[in-house]
Structure formats: C-alpha cells, structure tokens
Specification:
Elements lengths: L1 H15 L6 H5 L20 E2 L12 E8 L13 E3 L2 E6 L3 E6 L5 E6 L18 E3 L2 E5 L4 E6 L5 E6 L14 E3 L2 E4 L11 E5 L6 E6 L5 E4 L2 E5 L23 E4 L4 E5 L20 E6 L4 E7 L15 E5 L2 E7 L4 E6 L5 E6 L7 E4 L6 E3 L20 E3 L13 E3 L4 E7 L1 E7 L13 E7 L6 E6 L6 E7 L7 E4 L3 E5 L4 E6 L5 E6 L9 E5 L2 E8 L4 H5 L1 H6 L8 E7 L2
Parallel strand pairs: 1-34
Antiparallel strand pairs: 2-40, 3-4, 4-5, 5-6, 7-8, 8-9, 9-10, 11-12, 12-13, 13-14, 14-15, 15-16, 17-18, 18-19, 19-20, 21-22, 22-23, 23-24, 25-26, 27-30, 28-29, 29-32, 30-31, 32-33, 34-35, 35-36, 36-37, 38-39, 39-40
The structure holds calcium ion.
The site of calcium ion has 6 residues, from loops.
C-alpha cells in the first residue's frame, strides 16, 4: 500500500514537471503515437508509425492546418526532422537555429540562434538534421562543431560543449542519439582529413563518458581513461595515412535496445585518391556497431574497402525482424543494399538497388567482400605522363550516391523498405594531394552526370529478402528528403520540386500531394494529439546537390529556396 502511494506521488511529480523525457519513453518511441522523441521515429530508425487515422481511404481530406516560416535572410537547405513532445514541436533550421512551436497552432514559443564564427567549413550546405530530447532538455549540434543543450520550456542555454576545432574542418549536422541514458554523437568533416569518431556524453551536463575513434590506430577513452586502440595500427593503412583518415560519422546513428548496440555508418577515407592509402582502410565506409555500455566496437562490416569513389557508408542501419531474427538494413551510397545480422554483423543479403553499379559486379555473400571491377577504379596520378592527373573513369553511382543522407523507412506491416534512390554517375579522376589543416583533402576531380533523360530520383519499395523492387515512383529531380510510412498503408516523401507526396504502401499509387512552395529535402513525421493525427514536414531547397551536382545542379537551378514547416490533418 505504502509503495503504491509512493509510486502515485512520483507519477504526480513527473506530470507537474511537464513529463520529462526518459530513456524508457525514447525506447518506446516507435509504438507511442502522441509524440516523436527521436530521429527515426524510434531509435531503430524504421520511420514507421502505427497510426492509421489517416489512411488510403480518407487521405483526400488531408489539408494544411498551419505553416511557420524560419524567417531570416539566410535560407538554404532545410533537412530537419522535427520532434514533438507535450504538444510542443522542436525543429532545427539552417545556420544552427532551433525553434519551439505550438504543435497544434504553429505559434512560435521560442527560438535559439547559435552565433556562428566566420570560418565555419560545412562541406555540403549549412543544414541541420534535428535535435534530441532528454529530461527537460532539447539538445542539438552546430556548424562550428558544438553541442548546445537548452531548457525545452524556455530555450535558455543549460550547457554548451565543443566537439572539436571548426578551423580543422569539423562541424556537426546530425540529430544526436539518446541510448542507455547517454547522448551519442559523431562528427562531420570527412572532406577535410578529420578523424571520424563516436562520442557518448552525460546528456544532463555534457560531460564526456566515452570516445571511440572509427579509424584504426586511434585511442579510445572511457571516463577519462584509455580504453584501447581502435583496430590494429597500420594493419590496413600505410605509414601515417591513418592520422588523417576521415571516416566521418556525419549522419549520426541508430540504436536497438534489443542488442544494446549503437550503429554508426562511417564516411569516405581521406583523401579520395585511394592510391596513397593502399589497404582496406578500416573502419571507413563501414557500419560500426558499438557497445553503448563500454564504448568498444562489437562488430564492423565494411561496405566499400579501400573506397576510391567517395562512397561514404554513413547511411542509416535500420534494425528489423526477418525470419525471426533481428537484422539491419542499409542502402549504401555505393548502390548496394545490405542486410546484416544486427547482433553479429554477419552479412545475410546484398543486392544492387540502383540500375548501374560500375565499381563492383556484386557482393560475395561468403566473404562479405565486393567483387571489384579493377578497371573502374580512378587511376593513380603518379602513373600518368606528367604525374598530375590519373586515368579518368565513368563510375555509377556518382559520389552523391545511390542513396545519400535522406533516411529510408521500413514497414513491419508490408515487410518492405521504402528507399529514396537516385540514378546518376560521375566522371572522376585522381590528382596529387597533401594534407593541410582546414583545406579540402580530396585529391580528386569529378563531374556528376544524370544516367537518364527523364528521371534521376526514384522512391523504391524494396523487399530485403529477395532484393526485388516491388514498385517505384520516378522523379525528375534527385530525391533528397526522407521517408515516413504508417499503418494507414501510406508512404510519405518530399521532392525538390516542392511536393510532399503520399503513395499506397502496397502498390505505389500516388494518392495525395501538396505543393509546399520550396524543395523538400527533409523527412516527414506524424503523431496524434487531441484525437487527431498530424503530419509535418519541413520545406526548403538546398543541401549537397546544388553545390556539388555538376551537370545535375544545372538541371535543378530553377528551384527556389525557402524555410518553413508545414503541418497537415484531416478536414472534418
Ligand atoms: Ca564524403
């Protein structure tokens, strides 16, 4: 009796404090429908909502209820996935801004604009992908490589911590991950010879708990003490090349409470010219599974050994059940879709999800290694007549990837992954390069080119067991936003042309679309409040395509910038 009274008192106290966000709530995020507490609508990253209030039968009544502008003179790419808790939406914007908004009305409650120094060096636009909620805090990362924790009621700064030196090319754009009571983040800066790593902090104070570099040779730390070197120094990197090895963990990670592992994809090894770093270059272009309790790498799987095409393997590892086992699916920038055992990393399936993969003819399921086409590796510049430009090759996918940062969705109802894909290639060649702090560390030149006249993007429903594309919806411009799927048998995604679209999850038939006024390069979310299901997406064209897209950039230069949040519900 006494214990029961005590638990009631604890519950009342929690309610009065405004329902502080706990790890337990975050672990249940995928199945609780009144909030969106994590990037991925659940730390597994499935982006599946059990809500079916909005469905294929009534979606023709889906209408906008509010829109809010991020304002400001500076716009550019808006890639944020909003969070929703206690009727308040937390949404980040370009140039390291974050807004708190009344989720029902769109009324702005507060905003925080991070003061950015002149010399920031984001490689691929001034974007941000979202925040994390924990306790009474909302936490996000900035373009000058800091983490900022704000009181979610007032927007007041509670703590601020530096990740690394922005002048050396470090920045931060991903949504932080909360796992086992820790704030888990990576680093951006893979084009500047940084050292990729994953870090865990106390989310309430920002104090570091562990650091795990993802380039072999570098020391890890746990509670301020040495915690073992990553891999074996020089086993897969020659000389000092590991010291500027890249492998940036710039898209953040996923976490599965069932395995206790955080899964981070790692970016390209530095520099792009692969001839100066002969070897596999672990753990670049890989999936790395880290034991959240110890900060040790439990397993790794390398998607592109000795990458020479900027095939960052950062793509999200989404855990799901297949044949009664916990697996992880990953649509890699290199054009292959991988299914790995989530507990051991063992490769279970791999198949191309784009029409052309020139660099490898397939993935050997026995060895787990790609069957390289040696003729499609950009040539060694030192072998050329003047030593300045290696043999150029045409490779597909181009370095912007069969899939890039835009997160896919998985429906346990249909068993399908909904993958935003792009069909493009590149002419690429290598050049000599030496590392210089704060300078681009590529040693390569390139031009992105479309493969087909009529489309680049394609939203594909992919069966992870068979590799079959069950349906696809082609798009003229490259897809750059993420995907949401629901128990209402709907798939939502945005296009650079400005549309938020919905298709029947089983057939791919377009059942609804809305023009947001600028390009959509962010993933939609959904939640339920006051008995009604809401859908929200951020609109604002930008990101890597207009900056790096070569011939494709010319095709999309008519698209207008913007910066707003759109929220929809069913008309009564
Ligand atoms: Ca890269």
């Amino acid at each position: 009796m006494k214990r029961k009274l005590l638990s009631i008192l604890v519950m009342v106290a929690a309610a009065q404090a405004g329902a502080q966000v706990t790890q337990d709530m975050i672990n249940k995020d995928a199945t609780t429908t009144d909030s969106v507490l994590s990037w991925g609508l659940g730390t597994q990253g499935q982006r599946f909502s059990p809500l079916a209030d909005i469905n294929t039968k009534n979606i023709n009544r889906l209408v906008p209820v509010w829109s809010m502008s991020f304002g400001g003179e500076k716009q550019r790419g808006q890639q944020s996935q909003p969070l929703v808790h206690d009727g308040v939406m937390f949404v980040t914007a370009s140039y390291s801004r974050i807004f708190a908004v009344d989720a029902k009305t769109g009324k702005k409650l507060w905003k925080y604009e991070h003061r950015l120094p002149e010399g920031i060096m984001p490689c691929c636009d001034v974007i941000n992908r979202g925040a994390a909620l924990y306790d009474n805090l909302v936490i996000f990362g900035t373009l000058d490589a800091q983490l900022v924790a704000l009181d979610r009621k007032t927007g007041r700064v509670v703590w601020r911590e530096k990740i690394d030196d922005y002048a050396a090319g470090y920045s931060y754009t991903a949504a932080p991950l909360i796992a086992e009571g820790l704030l888990i983040t990576g680093v951006s800066g893979g084009e500047f010879g940084v050292v990729g790593r994953v870090e865990a902090r106390d989310p309430k104070t920002g104090k570091m708990v562990w650091v795990r570099p993802v380039v072999e040779g570098h020391m890890g730390y746990l509670n301020g003490k040495e915690n073992g070197i990553t891999g074996t120094t020089n086993a897969t990197w020659p000389g000092d090349t590991w010291k500027t090895g890249g492998a940036a963990t710039w898209l953040g990670g996923t976490y599965d409470p069932k395995t206790g592992l955080a899964y981070f994809g790692t970016g390209n090894p530095g520099p792009w010219n692969s001839h100066v770093r002969k070897g596999d270059n672990l753990y670049s272009a890989s999936t790395v599974a880290i034991d959240v309790k110890t900060g040790q790498i439990k397993w790794h799987y390398q998607n592109t050994p000795n990458d020479g095409w900027d095939y960052d393997g950062v793509n999200e590892f989404v855990t799901f059940d297949m044949d009664g086992k916990r697996m992880g699916g990953k649509a890699d920038r290199n054009g292959f879709f991988y299914v790995n055992d989530a507990a051991t990393g063992q490769l279970v399936n791999a198949f191309p999800f784009v029409t052309k993969t020139t660099w490898a003819t397939g993935i050997d399921l026995k060895t787990g290694r790609p069957n390289f086409d040696p003729n499609n590796r950009p040539g060694d510049p030192t072998a050329s007549a003047d030593g300045q430009k290696g043999k150029a090759v045409f490779s597909a996918p181009g370095f912007l990837g069969g899939k890039n940062q835009m997160p896919m969705a998985f429906s346990p109802k249909t068993g399908l992954f909904y993958v935003p894909t792009n069909e493009w290639g590149m002419e690429i060649w290598n050049e000599p390069i030496t590392y210089k702090k704060g300078a681009a560390f590529l040693g390569a030149g390139f031009t992105i080119k479309p493969l087909y006249d009529d489309y680049i993007g394609s939203l594909r429903a992919i069966n992870p067991k068979t590799g079959k594309v069950e349906w696809e919806v082609k798009n003229e411009a490259p897809l750059w936003g993420g995907v949401l799927t629901t128990a209402g048998d709907l798939v939502f995604w945005g296009t650079p042309e400005g549309y938020l679209k919905a298709a029947d999850a089983k057939t791919g038939k377009i059942v609804w679309q809305f023009q947001t006024g600028s390009g959509v390069v962010a993933p939609p979310v959904t939640w339920k409040q006051g008995g009604e299901q809401y859908i929200t997406v951020v609109s604002g064209w930008g990101g890597a395509v207009p900056l790096w897209g070569g011939e494709v950039a010319k095709k999309v230069n008519f698209l207008e910038q913007g910066g707003s949040v759109w929220t929809f519900k069913l008309m009564k």
